[in-house]
Amino acid sequence: MRFCLMIEGQEGVTWDQWRALAAAAERLGYEALFTSDHYGAGGIGSSDAWTVLAGLAARTERLRLGTLVSPVTFRHPTHLAKVATTVDRISAGRAEIGMGAGWWEEEHKAHGFPFPHTGDRFEMLAEQLEIVHGLLSDEQFSFEGRFYAVEDCTFAPKGVQRPHPPIIVGSKGLQRGIALAARWADEFNTWRGTPTETGERFARVREAVDEAGRDQSRFATSLMTWCFVGETEHDWRDRIERAHRLDPDARPFDEFLAKAEHDCIVGTPDRAAERLSEYAGAGAQRVMLNHSLFDDIEMLELLAEHVFPKVEG
Fold it and tell me: CA-to-CA distance for 84 and 107, rounded, in angstroms?
């Protein structure tokens, strides 16, 4: 299992905090830093995800950088391909492109983005995946679909990574998402769920990869989930309590805690390593640990030094 850091940018992360997070992740050996691609709602704002990644690309040397995920509703696929390629070139080949159908209707209404019904968003995602894949891979590319059209596009410059930066499709197990990942993605990412539940999702996507005639060794499966770890029970419970206070929509604390313990990484280092090993056994090749207390560098150090070395798989 490889370990990545996930930060929800719409929760008010400042540029100084982004720099500190990236520096810590690189110093501690995390493989990648991912961020959500949101504009925010309810009064807490967000910097543009890809602009932040471009800035971090110029300040880091090894850390991979990407979105989990960029929704189809925010950008034309050519725009997405261009910004991702730019980050790939600035970073000398470290960009990853997470793509999804989008879900946060309130955010779309607040910022004036159309929010089509679910079926249309998945059809948009299918078209965007084909277009982004073609623009980044082919010398010249054309496409005409229901939502997008590209005519004889010589997309230049290409990214450093060839045939293209890795494309990740995120889905919580919906068959439409699984089918699109199996057809176009280099990696399938799912979020939350117990090891048994995530293992079932991975099994379904692996079956779809076989049906698509693709090489299983060139396709990855990963999990994104939240993480609250401390050296003692007092420490990890304190982190969960802080996260609960910061969540304006949180349920009562006992319910919040029970949900976190159900399908997040919670507890002491030994307990966290045991849980991560279960996810590795279920097929998670990478884990994106969502760190909602983004000013807490100490937990990143604890994970890297006392949890990751104990994980089996």
Answer: 23
Nearest alpha-carbon partner for 179 in 117, 126, 102, 101: 126
Instruction: Give me the residues paired with residue 153 across strands.
Output: 141
For the entire predicted model, the pTM comes to 0.96
Three-class DSSP category at 206: helix
Note the pLDDT of residue 189.
Answer: 98
Which domain, by its residues, includes 18?
A: 2-310
For residue 232, give the CATH number of its domain. Answer: 3.20.20.30
Query: What whole-number distance in Å separates Cα of residue 208 and Cα of residue 183?
Result: 8
Q: Are 265 and 310 in contact (CB under 8 A)?
A: no
Integer Cα distance of 296 and 5 in angstroms: 13
Residues 6+ apart with CB under 8 A from 158: 85, 136, 164
User: How many domains in the chain?
Assistant: 1
Q: What is the DSSP string of 12-59?
A: T--HHHHHHHHHHHHHHT-SEEEE------TT-----HHHHHHHHHTT
Cβ atoms 182, 214 nearer than 8 A? yes
Most distant pair of Cα atoms in the chain: their distance: 61
Q: Is the dihedral of CA 175, 181, 187, 189 positive or negative?
A: negative
- Over residues 202-216, the pLDDT tens digits come to 999 999 999 999 999
Integer CA distances (angstroms), 82 to 75, 104, 150, 186, in order? 11, 24, 14, 19
HSE, side-chain direction, 13 A CA sphere, residue 243 = 22
Q: What are phi and psi of 212, to 5 degrees?
A: -80, -5
